[in-house]
């Protein structure tokens, strides 16, 4: 990990640092919405459904910002297009935003059916897609390191 | 509290639900099948994006006016008013025009409210939110529809709607209280402050804010309509305490009891002349489809429950309300007469005069403010429902139309209706800022 080339690889692979900051918002917000949806589904206390709507709206807004920055990174840096992780991250992110958008619409319904069953199911699907996307794309980052890292320096 | 449904069923239901949403059929529903005692109720449709279609408000130009049914004549009793919502005729023939605007207390508890609050402003006032909140007096000494006196009768009210005079006690229903004022016959203004007879559910949230008012025939009681605080409990069931009800208020001490419940937004409270029963018009719930749930005209039975929020038209359960109340659903009674969906009835009066054509005698005039949440506009007119033996008997017919022109612009929107001292029909038009007077065409010829 002392190798300067190696230190540069994950940064480039993961894109601009700004993207990393932005991407954490939709992840946190969409995961949070699954929690608040679940609490609403078990209590029917409307405040929890309201929390979900704000989390989903914030997740969507920051997710769109992250998508714009991510696309700008892709266009501006050809090397980013080479690793296999990138198409996985792009497709995964678009799926997350697509389902997230649908979920925002479902949550704009009034009272119980804004969450149960459609909203809660979509929140669960969103979180599943996030986990898969992060898992598959970060795995590739690790393999990229392995390929670039000279044998013998690995711990 | 335990979970209401099993998570395993959520995914399957959601998939089916979302597929169904994408296949919304064009609306070729015949709204006439929803006018009368047994309306056709299509299946529930839940939206991803609910339709929002409001006729843009353009107002009336000089000389423009709504279209009236044959045998009748329409004229503007007063123009240039500030958002007139309600009209009331005093015993000496003076007409009180209640000019009122929303208290604007709808919260922004979720992003949707930002859109809906804007929509509500456009629905009720074309976005204009100044002035108003007062009562204007019109005196038409000759009874021809051209007032010779117009004064500010009562100012600085708080989103008023209902008015009732018993003896020399004048009651005004602000959105948060029934106020009592001393009235002197012939007075053209009241400057002495009113006293609170009974506080009414107002803020902090005040979704349906118009409080309709009528006095019992013996004058001992007041009946007041109190609309729900949400479309369908999305502000929490706690916000609905004392709402979606008609209260009976004891005029001697201000004490109240709930006379009838489950009426989402009851307006136009009035006594039917033959049966002496209390009647009203009710705005039913939104966002279950363009043809659900039909608004209605109904007699109000003492102690009865009419369904909101748990069910509609008897035992049709609304899935958006949780926890559900099967005990209350079982008790719910259907209303008497459906007016079709989203017409937004806000005014009701029976023809107890003797100057309109005899065809109208004893029947009900209903002011339909008009739809905003279906693609094909509905309402935006005054209709007549024939009555016999104290019950609706026949199909509703148009009395005053032409509020929306061929281009889909709204010149005006009818709200409350009443009769003037001559028996002519008065219609408050809150978008056209006008009070319309509908009288017999023959009578007019005779007067000439």
Tell me briefly what this model is.
Chain A is an all-alpha fold and 155 residues long. Chain A has helices at 4-14, 17-43, 46-76, 85-107, 118-148.
Number of strands of chain B: 30
Percent helix among the residues of chain A? over 70%
* Helical/strand content category of chain B: mainly beta
Shape of chain B: globular
Distance between the termini of chain B: 74 Å
Strand order in space, largest sheet of chain B: 1-21-18-17-16
Radius of gyration of chain B: 21 Å
Largest sheet properties of chain B: 5 strands, antiparallel
**How are helices and strands ordered from N to C of chain A?**
HHHHH
Which parts of chain A are unreliable, with pLDDT below 50 for 5 consecutive residues or more? 1-15, 140-155
Largest interface, C-beta closer than 8 angstroms, per-chain residues: A-B, 31 and 36 residues
Q: What is the number of helical segments of chain A per DSSP (H or I, 4+ residues)?
A: 5
Q: In percent terms, what proportion of residues of chain B is strand? A: 25-35%
Q: Care to count the β-strands of chain A?
A: 0
In percent, how much strand structure appears in the residues of chain A?
A: under 5%
Which blocks of ≥5 consecutive residues of chain B have pLDDT under 50? 1-11, 444-448
Query: What's the rounded overall pLDDT mean of chain A?
Result: 82
Count up the helices of chain B: 4
């Amino acid at each position: 990990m002392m190798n300067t080339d190696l230190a540069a690889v994950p940064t480039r692979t993961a894109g601009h640092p700004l993207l990393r900051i932005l991407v954490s918002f939709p992840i946190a917000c969409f995961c949070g919405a699954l929690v608040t949806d679940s609490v609403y589904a078990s209590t029917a206390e409307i405040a929890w459904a309201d929390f979900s709507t704000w989390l989903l709206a914030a997740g969507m807004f920051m997710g769109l910002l992250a998508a714009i920055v991510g696309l700008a990174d892709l266009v501006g840096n050809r090397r980013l297009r080479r690793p296999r992780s990138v198409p996985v991250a792009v497709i995964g992110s678009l799926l997350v935003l697509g389902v997230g958008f649908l979920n925002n619409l479902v949550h704009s319904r009034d009272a119980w059916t804004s969450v149960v069953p459609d909203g809660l199911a979509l929140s669960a699907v969103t979180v599943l897609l996030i986990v898969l996307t992060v898992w598959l794309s970060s795995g590739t980052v690790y393999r990229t390191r392995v390929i670039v890292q000279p044998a013998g320096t690995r711990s | 509290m335990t979970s209401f449904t099993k998570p395993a069923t959520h995914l399957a239901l959601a998939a089916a639900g979302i597929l169904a949403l994408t296949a919304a059929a064009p609306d070729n529903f015949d709204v006439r099948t929803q006018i009368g005692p047994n309306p056709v109720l299509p299946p529930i449709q839940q939206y991803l994006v609910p339709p929002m279609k409001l006729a843009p408000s353009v107002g009336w130009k000089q000389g423009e006016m709504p279209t009236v049914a044959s045998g009748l004549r329409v004229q503007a009793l007063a123009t240039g008013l500030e958002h007139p919502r309600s009209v009331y005729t005093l015993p000496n023939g003076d007409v009180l025009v209640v000019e009122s605007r929303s208290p604007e207390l709808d919260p922004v508890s979720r992003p949707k409210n930002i859109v809906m609050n804007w929509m509500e402003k456009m629905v009720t006032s074309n976005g204009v939110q100044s002035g108003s909140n007062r009562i204007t007096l019109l005196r038409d000494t000759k009874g021809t529809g051209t007032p010779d006196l117009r004064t500010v009768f009562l100012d600085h009210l708080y989103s008023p709607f209902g008015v009732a005079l018993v003896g020399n006690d004048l009651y005004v229903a602000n959105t948060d209280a029934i106020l009592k004022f001393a009235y002197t016959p012939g007075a053209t203004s009241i400057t002495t402050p009113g006293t609170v007879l009974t506080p009414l559910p107002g803020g902090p949230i005040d979704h349906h804010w118009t409080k309709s008012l009528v006095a019992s025939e013996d004058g001992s009681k007041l009946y007041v309509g109190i609309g729900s605080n949400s479309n369908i409990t999305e502000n929490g069931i706690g916000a609905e305490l004392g709402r979606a009800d008609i209260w009976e208020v004891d005029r001697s001490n201000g004490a109240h009891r709930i006379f009838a419940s489950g009426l989402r937004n009851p307006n136009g409270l009035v006594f039917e002349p033959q049966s002496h029963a209390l009647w009203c018009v009710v705005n039913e719930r939104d966002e279950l489809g363009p043809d659900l749930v039909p608004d209605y005209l109904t007699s109000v039975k003492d102690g009865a429950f009419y369904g909101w929020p748990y069910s509609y038209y008897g035992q049709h359960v609304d899935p958006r309300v949780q926890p559900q109340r099967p005990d209350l659903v079982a008790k719910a009674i259907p209303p008497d007469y459906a007016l079709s969906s989203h017409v937004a009835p806000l005014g009701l009066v029976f023809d107890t005069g003797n100057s309109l054509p005899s065809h109208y005698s004893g029947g009900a005039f209903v002011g339909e403010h008009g739809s905003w949440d279906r693609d094909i506009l509905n309402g935006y007119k005054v209709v007549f429902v024939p009555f016999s033996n104290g019950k609706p008997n026949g199909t509703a017919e148009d009395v005053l139309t032409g509020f929306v022109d061929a281009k889909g612009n709204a010149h005006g929107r009818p709200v409350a209706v009443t009769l003037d001292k001559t028996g002519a029909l008065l219609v408050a038009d809150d978008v056209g800022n006008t009070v319309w007077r509908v009288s017999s065409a023959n009578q007019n010829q005779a007067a000439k």
